[in-house]
Amino acid sequence: MENLKNLKIALLVGGTSPEREVSKSSGKSIYYKLNELGFNVKLIDPAYGLNQPKNEEEFFSEKNYGEISNINCGKAINSSLLDNIDLVFIGLHGKWGEDGTIQSLLELRGLKYTGSDVLSSATAMNKLVSKILFQHYDVVTPKWIVIKKNDTDVNVIKEKINEFFGFPCVVKPNDQGSTIGITICKEKNELEEAIQQARKYSDVVLIEEFIQGREITVGLIDSAELPILEIRPKHGYYDYDCKYTSGMSEYLVPADIPGDVAKHLQQQALLAFNAVNASSYARIDFRLTDDFKTYCLEVNTLPGMTSTSLVPKMAKAAGIDFGSLLERIIHLAWK
After folding, report:
1. DSSP label at 22?
2. Could you give the CA distance from residue 225 to residue 282 in angstroms, rounded to a whole number?
3. Residue 241 above 90 pLDDT?
4. CB under 8 Å to 43, separation ≥6 — which residues?
5. Count of helix runs (H) and strand runs (E) in the chain
6. Which residues contact 115 (CB under 8 A, 6 or more apart)?
7. If you count Cβ atoms within 10 Å of the first and of the last residue's Cβ in the chain, which end, N or C, has fewer?
8. C-alpha–C-alpha distance, residues 186 and 209, integer Å
9. Is 256 marked active-site?
10. Does the annotation mark 190 as catalytic?
11. Residue 151: what pLDDT?
């Protein structure tokens, strides 16, 4: 492997999505570890445009340094901020981070970047498209229906739910991550509010069969499976608080599941990874029932890198420390 530490790396953090604070947390972990390893890293928060913070503390502060906008993101990527940069490490999450938008702007500049390419990122972020591809490639996924912007008759929606899978069900925005905007509807009278909540984040809402079972995730680095991890959240399901609040979830890695089930999960994860044509690294989330049936929920092409994030935990169980994990991600982007 060539000396990657000679590369000039821009680390993108923050962004404009509802996952901005999560991105800052991921970015902070990545930034300090890369610096510790001797990499030459430049911080950029594209949401600020040309008006970038003057020091690293302001990049990671809970308070915004200035106005944030998607227009600023375009200005930042197309500016001199990225002049003489060899590689962009994308530490963004959500829209304008994981959905292919930033990736397309970077490609127009001829810059290499970490994670999956434009089309794969956009595909994985779009839950509806992902699920259609899952079905095509024999990845088992929960049943679903789609609610578009002009679908306003809640009674008709209830009838569709009863026809296809019934209650409880999961209501989620079609193109958000980190469980933002998600509601588990136990009864019909909760549905209208759940749809309104999801529509705050997306015009297209996915309503999905609720699978009772364990929260399981599989990490992949360059198509190689990491040890399987089980999440035991305090809230009963892995919501935003359980994801990003220390002590709100218990993590078991390797997960305590039979060997043949683990092998099947890894095969399903690889199928899902390939279904959306992901590359470099990803995290694939599942539900596992008591009788060991597996249901793939989604592919995350830019999984979190915070202190509570799952891919670093799985990598550690495989004997790959956080620094080595980041070096592998950089190598895969550069090769």
Report:
1. H
2. 10
3. no
4. 10, 11, 13, 27, 31, 52, 53, 56, 59
5. 12, 14
6. 90, 103, 121, 279, 280, 281, 301, 302, 329, 333
7. N
8. 11
9. no
10. no
11. 87
The whole-angstrom separation of Cα 295 and Cα 335 is 33
Spell out the domains of the chain, with CATH numbers in brackets.
4-113 (3.40.50.20), 143-209 (3.30.1490.20), 212-334 (3.30.470.20)
pLDDT tens digit sequence for 116-128: 999 999 999 999 9
Determine contact, residues 250/235, Cβ cutoff 8 Å: no
Looking up tokens 């019934």, which residue turns up? 166
283 catalytic per annotation: yes
Neighbours of 17 (CB within 10 A): 24
Active site residue 225: no
Structure tokens of 162? 């009863």
Q: How far is CA 116 from CA 28, 142, 152, 211, in A?
A: 21, 25, 35, 28
The verdict on whether 222 is a catalytic residue reads no
Between CA 57 and CA 315 the distance in angstroms is: 28
CA nearest 175: which of 91, 273, 95? 95
**Helices in 126-258 by DSSP H: which ranges?**
127-136, 154-164, 191-199, 240-244
313-322 per-residue burial string, b: 16 or more CB within 10 A, e: under 16:
bbbbbeebeb
Whether cis (ω within 30° of 0) applies to the bond prior to 254 is yes
Query: 80-106, pLDDT tens digit by residue?
Result: 999 999 999 999 998 888 999 999 999
**Which among 17, 178, 202, 280 is annotated as catalytic?**
178
Candidates 20, 214, 283, 328; catalytic one: 283
Residue 298 falls in the annotated catalytic set? yes
Contacts of the segment 32-38: beta carbons below 8 A, 24+ positions apart:
33/322, 33/323, 33/326, 34/9, 34/89, 34/326, 36/323, 37/5, 37/323, 37/326, 37/327, 38/5
Residue 115 annotated in active site = no
